Amino acid sequence: MKNNELNRMLFSGENTAKMPVLFVGHGSPMNAIEENEFVQGWRNIGKSLPHPKAILCVSAHWETRGTFVTAMPKPKTIHDFGGFPKALYEVEYPAPGSPELANETKRTVTKTTVGLDEKWGLDHGAWSVIRRLYPEADVPVIQMSLDYGQAPQYHFELAKELSALRKKGVLIIGSGNMVHNLRMVAWDKINEPEYGYDWAIQANNKFKTLIESGDFKSLVNYASLGREVQLAVPTPDHYLPLLYSLALKDKDEPIFFFNDKPVMGSLTLTSVKIG
């Protein structure tokens, strides 16, 4: 999409049908180049979505002091990981950026001052998933950072302010993992499909039950949900993108779970489509 067309959509007051919202469990960076059931799940969801005018992605892998959005016209592909095969570092995802959407997001959010970033780009929490949804790299993409100094309630309230973008053709994606404890990975089970510790499966099921019941308050206050959740979310970075997605759910919107499986004992790739 040409920038002038996106600019017209965002600033003319013209609305479109409300876009769905995604939370994607992105798992290993290797999902960017491997063929597996999770990748196919992303492809299938991509085919089910209306074609967006642009994408705003909240990734677990961009934490900042304050809140920022990428505002460059051509974001770089960031290979923010180590110890993987050379082929993974050779992947480029040349989706355009959108300074127009960055500025519209800055105006839309009133809870804080959103900074315009010209240095970051697209990290693997964004491009490893989005390249499977839109392999032609023909949809403009911006990222929004996670302010690591703020509590979960703050993030949930900030995310609600993004709701208007859904009616402007913007697909909002949270990218993280509901259960993400790398210190407890079962390396001896790495090739065993769908292996999860009991606590990981219990935490994942608890999250799904609360999502289905609409009890987002409990999900925001996840630290009080018991030992299995404390193990599932030892740090908030991979969990907070889920709250960004859930905050955008309107009343009576349907919820669909996909890729709902554990891997390596202490992670789940459970993902959510809203709307």
From TrEMBL:
Domain of life of the native organism: Bacteria
Residue ranges of every copy of the Extradiol ring-cleavage dioxygenase class III enzyme subunit B domain listed in the record = 36-224
Question: Which Pfam families does the protein's record reference?
Answer: LigB (PF02900)
Spell out the CDD domains in the cross-references.
45_DOPA_Dioxygenase
- SUPFAM superfamilies, per database record: LigB-like
| Listed cofactors | Zn(2+)
Q: Does the keyword Zinc apply?
A: yes
What are the alphabetically sorted keywords of the record?
Answer: Metal-binding, Oxidoreductase, Zinc
Q: Which GO terms describe its molecular function?
A: ferrous iron binding; oxidoreductase activity, acting on single donors with incorporation of molecular oxygen, incorporation of two atoms of oxygen; zinc ion binding
> Which parts form a coiled-coil structure per UniProt?
none
Signal peptide, first to last residue: none
Q: Does the keyword Translocase apply?
A: no
Protein family membership: Belongs to the DODA-type extradiol aromatic ring-opening dioxygenase family.
User: Which NCBIfam families does the entry link to?
Assistant: PRK10628.1 (NF007914)
Per its record, how is this protein called by name?
Uncharacterized protein ygiD
Species this protein is from: Aquipluma nitroreducens
